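Q: Here's a chain of 266 amino acids. Please give me its 3D structure as tokens.
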Amino acid sequence: MVEKKKLKEELKLKDGMKSLAQELKERIFKTESFQEFDKKESKSDLSDKEIQELSEKITEKDIEEEKKNVDGKKETLISLEDYIKCAVHLGTKVITPHMRKFVYKRRADGLAVINTAMIDDMLREAIKFLNQYEPSHVYLLCKREAGWPAAQVFEKTTGIKVFTKKYTPGATTNLILDNFFEAEMTIICDPWIDKNALADTVRLKKPVLALCDTNNFTSGVSKIIPCNNKSRKSIGCILFILAREYCKHKKIPFTAKITDFSGELE
């Protein structure tokens, strides 16, 4: 009798957590503006594959053109050429109100271009933010396949837990789940694709660091890294910088190169 009562209470608690989590997701992601954006994106934006292909076609002309828009005297976390070769500045055709301030122009093909100097500045802020946490208190989620190789190297070099193919909704909020774990901070590679982890973290009132492209809404995100979060090179570049600077701060040996994260840049 006691066991049945206990089971009922657990099931009731579980249902309650699900409903709260669902309510939070709807509040963050199902606003009228997001629904309008979602319709617009499906009609006018490029696919991940198309952006990935365009990210592989950065030319010397592109590099020289982008260098004109950045103060050459300012020191950057990696060389400006490497930023551009990794296509971190390449956005999508859709620009949300949340990301408009990071965009400075559109290319002839309609793709938004993110200000590379702002990417570097926001990365510096993100690094200081991440450095406050120990590896065991953080996890990274990257469900986009293009980011899996970089995410795996990130886990190996920093000791931070990484989820790629699957993340169970409620993994950090539902004590009943077998794979429940606790974390003080979450890193996500796309607020939309990784929305379950974002919703869980927001519900716990914990901070979220996110790689955000021009087509992302950033509700619930504590620290934004504006960048191309669709291609392997770009995700790899960002995670390389985060890992390198984090390991430097935590005095963790770090011998990896940017190509270990992003693949060859040429």
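Q: Can you summarize the key feature?
A: The chain has a mean pLDDT of 87.
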